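Lecture 7 notes. Example A: sequence first, then its structure tokens.
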Amino acid sequence: MAALLQKSGHTVRGSDGPLYPPMSTLLEEVGIEPCVGFDIANLASGPAPDLVIVGNAVPRDNPEALEVERLGLAKMSMPQALGQFFLSQRRPLVVSGTHGKTTTTAIAAWVYSACGADPGFLIGGRPKGLDSSFKLGAGERFIIEGDEYNAAYFDRGAKFLHYCPESLILTSAEYDHADLYPTPQSLLDAFAALIALLPTDGFLAACGDWPAVRELAADAPCDVVLYGLEEGNTLRPVNGIESGPWGSRFRIEDRQAGQVEITLPTWGEHNVTNALAVWAAARRDGLPAAEVAAALCEFGGVGRRLDELGSPRGITVVDDFAHHPTAVGKTLQALRMRYPDRRISLCYEPRSLTAGRNFLYSAYRDALAGADRVYLAPIYHRHRLAADDILDVETLRAELGEAGVPIVLCESYDDLYRRAMDEAREGDVLVTMSSGSFDAMPARLLAGLADRQLGNQSS
């Protein structure tokens, strides 16, 4: 957001915690040097700001937030500012849903760019193949990830309610963010409010594999395309999906172009559905079928989404952002397709305020069964949860152990690292999953295996 504003002619300064690459590098490249830490002196380090944009991680008792209030400075949440400065003059294509937002937004930005539409975009991840995760663009489209989390301490509604979509992709609807939405219905109500913002001449591409999405789509005020893998969807693969070393291949029936074959250099049914969503939006916008198919064939993926980091000593390290058990299960399914006949060891951190809750117990049991071995980090927000609300990891270990999937309950990050390193063997796929930094676990494992490889060679 800061870089977009700077590139569009505003002068930007601000405060944050310690920043590291790639974010620190990105800010340096556009000429922004943030203050490290929050202090009221930061607000007085230059001319009084015309506007203060407050991130949703900033609490109301933050010293700078209190000073902004005291001085009566104009303030906005980040999504409010996005709406005012970038989306109000464009045709927003908003990608929302519980799962798959970042990857689908990245696919859309890649396809529209490859087809010459020159979109603006803002992606909540690091896309491969694109110069950065943001761009102003000169085309009519602005493609943005529509997050359902709250906007700011003074704006508790979902971020996406500020994005005024002309077109919307709804990838899924499943309960998440229990710290913000007290019931599953309250989250569905937020998605319903987003759909209600669509104009009558707008467009909704909705994943019909989710019953809740079908119900939400039924109330859309505009044209709807249901996409997915199951029967009853308007847009679905013809005769299934073929997987191989090259990725996933399938055919679709296009009203104007006939049958079109698409080869994705990614694995997993969830990535096929993500591609279908972008196909629906791109074709509705008139992008040529052959060009869209060619662009999908060249999509390079997104950092921290099935991201293969290296294979020292014949052990492949993969990093993924998955944190909800549904996403964990789909990622493990994709790994089975990508690395058939190899042992998959999962290093998992229940990071978010929802991920460590016991109402997800059954979903975790089913998802983790897709691994051959699990190293479970401590629940990150355990101290913020009621005792009866915390995921029952002991019972989970016992139940999955009886099913042949050993779970190692680790006392700390260092304990997890040691155990995973000690038990890794040639041919393994060692995958890390977390929605946070995970104490740099992917890089630590990669470096540790490389050092062990050098040690073996030297001996």
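Example B, a different protein, same format:
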Amino acid sequence: MRLAEVAEKLGVAEWRLKGALERQSIQLVKNFQPSYLVFKKDVSGIERGTAVFLGEELSVVRGFPKIKRAFYLEPLLKKHFSSRVAVEEKMNGYNVRVALVEGRLLALTRGGYVCPYTTAKLRESRNTERFLKEHPSLMLCGEAVGEKNPYVVHHYPEAGDFGFFIFDLRERESNESMPVLERNALVEEYELRHVRLFGIFDKGDATREIFRIVQELAAEGREGVVIKDPEMKLPPIKYTSSQTNASDLAYAFRFPYEYGREFFFSRIIREGFQAVEWDESEAELEKRALRLGKSILLPMVESIKKVRQGEILTEDYELDFASEAELEEFLAYLRRQGVSVIVEEMQHRDGGVRVILKRLRSSSTDKIRSVLNGRGE
């Protein structure tokens, strides 16, 4: 497995990597060429999601660091940032890192696995590949969004069926990040897209500006913002709207037994802090409470009724593939990830394949059915 070589490359003691492998904090992915190690947890300062490809030469793609979330914004901004802050849009999709490994463009999920669907979509962009070939030490970090992706479906007019919006450029091996304005200029040079930059503000004025921006985004059905040090020397902070919290809860309560309690609890707590910081009136609090309550109760009731009627809870995706072979590769990938899906419908179009995939939410289906059949809690 060349563990000593990997340890030297990462600057980590070999015995720590060996222990992490034994604990399954690191996984060896064998059914890929080249095989690669995935860090499923942080190990000695190496981030979760890091992938080390075991080719002729080792190729490291570091994991994307976790971003802290602001519950109560103003004091955190004052404490965390030194002077100015850059405010960018946080889009509702899935985090992807794109890098060149042995001359091939690969797209990695947040967890560190090579996603064949995302990789195929991004290989369609000649500019993306050209960027990586001319800057092989960098990785593109961005949000994959749109209505035809297998993870998070959300409508963005500018994205079409599938869009990729860059929010960071990082050195693959050191994870050092490029300053915001320098990054955007370089991305634009290759005619690639990046997330919206709303502006760079003095720290003292930023809270008011961020509240205004987030409220405008919420009215458009968009998610929120990421607040950054323009030089990227400090970790970013994310801040989202009440509507986003409600949307997250509504999604999760469709499948209430699939998510941990921390997922639900943290989003509900955010609502309380934001309502206080925004100094909401009784009428505004009523609206927030109604939105929150509906997001929890209504999707759960709908799911319980479906199971009572004998249905199985599923999450449906419409996806386009260049060929049936590409579809089969993606289905095999999902099975390896422990995801159960069925192909509901398949149509051959323009030399490609369009399918509707149903992801089975068996845990919620089974537990709801069990309660309906008389099991107590």
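Note on Example B: The CA atoms of residues 47 and 63 lie 5 Å apart. The two ends are 47 Å apart (CA to CA).
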